[in-house]
Each structure stands twice: as C-alpha cells, then as structure tokens.
Amino acid sequence: MVWDPFGTLRRALWIGGGQWAGKSTVAQLLATRHGVTAYHYDYHDARGHDDRRVARRVRLGEPVTSPDPETVWVHTTPEQMAAETLAGFPIRFEWVLDDLRALVSGRPVITEGWGLRPELVTPLVDSPRQMVVMVPSEAFRQHQLRTVARAATFGQSVSDPGRAQRNRIARDRLVAEDAVHAARAHGVRVIEVDGSRTADQICDLVAEHFAPYLKPQPQPHHEPSSTESAHQI
Question: Which of 13, 89, 106, 156 is 20 to 30 A from 171 in CA distance terms?
Fold first, then answer.
C-alpha cells in the first residue's frame, strides 16, 4: 500500500507517453478549463529533483556530477540510452510521488510527463481510465522537431551535435513505443497525436476521457456546533 496521506495519488489523473506529443499543453488547458492543478514532470525532474538525484549518487558511491555529455549522447547507442532511461523511471517516479503527496486539492491533480509509466501508475489508481498515454505520430514528431526551438537543436556542447540529436530522437522514439506497449498491457488508453487535431481538440478528447473525474465532487455538509460557531473568525 503506497502512503497517500491526503488521497491525492489515488485521485490524480495521469498523462504519460512520448516526447513532443503535447502533454504539457493539454495539461495546461485542462487546468485552465476545469480549475485543476497541473503537475509538470519534466520541470520538476530537471530542477526540483536534482538534490535527490545527487543524494542518491552519494549514497550509492557513484560520481556526484552528471555523466559526460559526450559519452551519454555521442558514444551511446539509442537502444542503450532507451534502456537506461526506462530503468531510471521507477526511481524518478518515487520523487514525483513525494511531490504529489504534499498537494491537497478539491479537484484531481493532472500529472503529465514521459516518465509516468502505466506499470507505475495503474497500481495507484482505482481505474486505468485515470490515465492516458499520448504519443506523436512520426510525421508529427518531425513537425515538432522542425518548429519547436528546444526540440530542433541539441543544447549541450559535444563533438558531434548532429549525431547526438539523431541519437536523442531515436531514443525518444523507442521510449514512446515502449509506453504504447505498456499502456496496452495495462488497459490504458493510447492517443496518437498526428497533427490533424488542434491542441484544443486534443484537450477535448482527453477531457472527455477524464470526464467522470473532472466533475466537482459534492462536499459533505457540516453543521458547526455551538462551540465552533462561537470561535469562528
């Protein structure tokens, strides 16, 4: 049983899947439309989790600094990169759960990110309908790589940026394919984003899927006692 002091994990709604599928955009639209809280995995994983990442390396006797970008992106095959990424997701998922346990909301929390895997999420929720997996079609992935600045270029200093970028794209493709296989194995809906729908239309699709959980839940009526009434501010 996963510790869930405020019931946030059990009630959360999850958007996993591949890079460049529009998960963050959809979560932001859902938050704006339905008044829910959006938790962006990538943002927290790249910033707020660094201290836990370093502490884990110290505990295991590993180098504290991040691996050399040249080794990671140029001299490692996409298959190796994908395997290492998938192996690291369960560790990083525990840090996500720590973040979510501290949130209390009258509505579900929309949690999105590529590290939110069906095999990790489904044991926490009452129904696989509390999750969707969004993946880009190959054509839409190429569109994103052409038009999204942070996707189009490789931001780290390496000897062969072109090869590093190709390796990153191939790795992302493999991780997305694995997410689809895992989703089907766990009864989670897969939405392929191919560019034929606008972001608002994709959001409509996801909102329809999550509809039973996005509705405001009735709150129990509580009549204050005479003592409580006397101490109201």
Answer: 13
What is the per-residue pLDDT across 145-176, written as a single tens digit (0 to 9) for each?
888 887 877 878 899 999 999 999 999 999 99
For the residues of 152-196, what is the DSSP string, one character each?
Answer: HS--S--S-HHHHHHHHHHHHHHHHHHHHHHHHHTT-EEEEE-SS
SS3 13: strand
> Rounded CA gap, 233 and 229, in Å?
9
For residues 94, 116, 82, 149, the Cα torsion angle rounded to the nearest 10 degrees is -120
CB 178 within 8 A of CB 82: yes
Collapsed DSSP state (helix, strand, coil) of residue 133 = strand
| Domains observed in the chain | 8-216 (3.40.50.300)
Q: pTM for the complete prediction?
A: 0.86
